[in-house]
């Protein structure tokens, strides 16, 4: 799958996770709705499913990873920004094949599209710090440039 399909997967996963968070509907129901309502031929469906199922399944672990880098309680973080932080953290932990800079860039771009005015700066800052911990080997040496 190409970059465009993966990008679309992240965008749809963000929207689906937002719907899940607000509605309380089951993930299976939301996934079914998204499959019907969207042209999934342009989406990396496997990646979409991995994010949609993996983030809720690992919610407390993801929050524990993120919390030390937040400047406020999780409940006070904008819902879109929190989903993006969880998505970025999930990808850094579970998708080592995706470079950390790509993970951060994708989350920042989604924050610009769906988040608040300066939300992308917050996303960038938190995920950048998380990358130092979660991708230490990958980030080593790249900092000094």
Automatic annotation (TrEMBL):
Cellular component GO terms, alphabetical: cytosol
Function description: Involved in transcription antitermination. Required for transcription of ribosomal RNA (rRNA) genes. Binds specifically to the boxA antiterminator sequence of the ribosomal RNA (rrn) operons.
A Pfam short name: NusB
Protein's name in the database: Transcription antitermination protein NusB
UniProt gene name: nusB
InterPro entries named in the record: NusB-like_sf, NusB_fam, NusB_RsmB_TIM44
PANTHER family referenced in this protein's UniProt entry, alphabetically: ANTITERMINATION NUSB DOMAIN-CONTAINING PROTEIN, N UTILIZATION SUBSTANCE PROTEIN B-RELATED
Gene Ontology biological-process entries: DNA-templated transcription termination; transcription antitermination
Domain NusB/RsmB/TIM44: 7-131
Highest taxon in the source lineage: Bacteria
The entry's keywords: RNA-binding, Transcription, Transcription antitermination, Transcription regulation
């Amino acid at each position: 799958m190409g970059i465009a399909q993966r990008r679309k997967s992240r965008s749809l996963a963000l929207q689906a996770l937002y719907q899940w968070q607000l509605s309380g509907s089951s993930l299976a129901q939301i996934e079914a709705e998204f499959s019907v309502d969207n042209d999934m031929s342009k989406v990396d469906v496997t990646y979409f499913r991995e994010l949609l199922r993996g983030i809720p399944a690992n919610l407390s672990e993801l929050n524990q990873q993120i919390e030390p880098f937040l400047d406020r309680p999780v409940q006070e973080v904008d819902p879109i920004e929190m989903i993006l932080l969880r998505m970025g953290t999930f990808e850094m932990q579970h998708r080592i094949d995706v470079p950390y800079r790509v993970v951060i860039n994708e989350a920042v771009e989604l924050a610009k599209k769906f988040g608040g005015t300066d939300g992308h700066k917050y996303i960038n800052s938190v995920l950048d710090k998380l990358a130092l911990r979660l991708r230490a080997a990958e980030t080593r040496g790249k900092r000094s440039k």
